[in-house]
Amino acid sequence: MRTRTGSFALFTAAAILMVGAVTARAQGQEWQVTAGAESRNKGSQALAFLPNELWIHAGDSIRWTFPTHERHTLTFLRSSPPPAQIRPPAFGPIFGHLVGCPGTTPDGSTFDGLTCVTSDVLLVDEGTESPPSYSVVFPVRGNFKFVCLVHADMTGVVHVLDASEALPHDQEFYSRQGQRERAVLLADAGRLERIHGDEDDEQSSGVAAGIGEIVTTTGAGSQTASLMRFERQTIVVRVGDTVEWTSLDPSINHTVTFGLEPDDPRPPSANVTPTSDGARYAVISSPADSVNSGFLSPAPQDRANLAQSAPGITRFRVTFTSRGTFNYICAVHDQLGMTGRVIVN
Ligand SMILES: [Cu+2]
Questions:
Q1: Do 149 and 116 form a contact (C-beta atoms < 8 A)?
Q2: Do β-strands 155-161 and 53-57 pair in parallel, antiparallel, or remain unpaired?
Q3: pLDDT (tens digit per residue) in 116-161
């Protein structure tokens, strides 16, 4: 009985200490920002942290909300002191499953500059009312870069200052800035659609498989405006014609996928062959054929002191040898409405 009382007292003391610790942490401010934005039809996507540069105090936390149907992560990799962490590929052997740090860290994780913190892939789920969110606590001073592991040109920086230093902006400033950048990036993506639409040549058999541009709106790195659409959505050709798809996005991967959608859309299907000019090629003879281009991807950006990368594979050509209507999707972005149709007369 005494022992139990004693341990109960200890437990009570520990509980009071813990409450004290929680209270101390709760005194830090929680900042609110968003990761990504989209147009109502989901075709225009801002692949961007909005905003992507913040100044906060040590002990503060930041909560990112993910309001889009495109997937993103919020990730802090270790950059300094050395050794810097090697950026992992977004997905491992199973497509859609994040490699992460490796693995993910829970909502409310603490980033001290040394140990990687990452959310899982987060996106709006049609079945739920509110978008997912993820928060990180910053106990130590420093300047920390953050990234989305899915999108190469979606980065930001947090400046964590000493409590005695003045912060340059308040929450209202960041909310306004995020709204402004959202509007600019989505307008950019919409403009890409119109520019391309104006250039439409009815005689051409070319289709853009996504169009994008990297935009820098702050001093903290890059944001991307991407149009997740095939332009033209419907193309009409004749038997024997070859249609060419070209990805015009500098930052992300798309596919051209006919028939059954493969579990892993990254590699081309076995009936796709490389061409001498670095594109990929297939022949489709029936609307029942299954053909996957594999990822159409830009080459990584060129930087000094990095290994030279091979050219990206950005083009896919298909010759149609029978009449019919051939529907296809981008296996990565069909949930955003990225689908198309070839009508062969
Ligand atoms: Cu796509």
A1: no
A2: parallel
A3: 999 999 999 877 779 999 999 999 999 999 999 999 999 999 999 9
> 25 CA to middle of ligand 1, Å?
42
For 50, list phi and psi in degrees, rounded to 5. Answer: -120, 100
Residues, CB-to-ion distance under 5 Å, ligand 1 = 254, 330, 332-333, 338
Using a cut of 0.85, tell me whether the model's pTM lies above it.
yes
pLDDT in tens, 200-244: 555 578 999 999 999 877 788 899 999 999 998 999 999 999 999
Look at the chain and count its residues.
Answer: 345
Q: How far is the CA of 339 from the centre of ligand 1 (A)?
A: 9
From the number of C-beta atoms within 10 Å of its C-beta (0-12, 13-18, 19+), residue 323 rates as exposed
- 129 C-alpha vs ligand 1 centroid, how far in Å? 25
- Residue 175 dihedral angles phi and psi, to the nearest 5°: -65, -45
Please give the single-letter amino acid code of residue 171.
Q
**Rounded to the nearest whole angstrom, what is the distance from the C-alpha of residue 211 to the centroid of ligand 1?**
10
CA 296 to centroid of ligand 1, rounded, Å: 9
Under-50 pLDDT residues of the chain: 1-26, 198
